[in-house]
Write a structure and sequence with these properties.
mainly alpha
């Protein structure tokens, strides 16, 4: 496992340990749903390709599909994060202007107060 993957794994393990049992259950359910969806996509990809794969060949196809899918998802995540980082300064400036307290005019010193 590459060092970057080990670091991600370690951080995820630490987060898992700190989760409450209810949160862990929710995460397990999400992972189960994700795996089922991917399994259906793999089956559809095999069916749509017209391939007739059994045993080891099917397992190899599934592994390659998962590898490429992770690669694609990682690339999309990086692109999205880069775009977000580019757009955040403009957003922050816009919100700063929108929520900035209007400056109160300084009192004029005209001498005596008017009655």
């Amino acid at each position: 496992m590459p060092p970057e993957d080990r670091q991600i794994f370690r951080k995820n393990a630490e987060r898992w340990i700190q989760m409450r049992p209810e949160e862990q259950k929710v995460m397990r359910e999400r992972e189960k749903v994700y795996r089922e969806r991917v399994k259906q996509e793999i089956d559809a990809a095999i069916r749509d390709s017209g391939l007739r794969l059994e045993g080891e060949k099917r397992e190899q196809f599934e592994q390659r599909y998962l590898q490429e899918r992770r690669r694609i998802e990682h690339a999309i995540h990086q692109e999205t994060e880069a775009k977000r980082q580019q757009e955040l300064p403009a957003l922050q400036e816009k919100l700063k202007k929108e929520f900035q307290e209007p400056s109160t005019p300084a009192p004029t010193s005209s001498g005596s107060p008017k009655k």
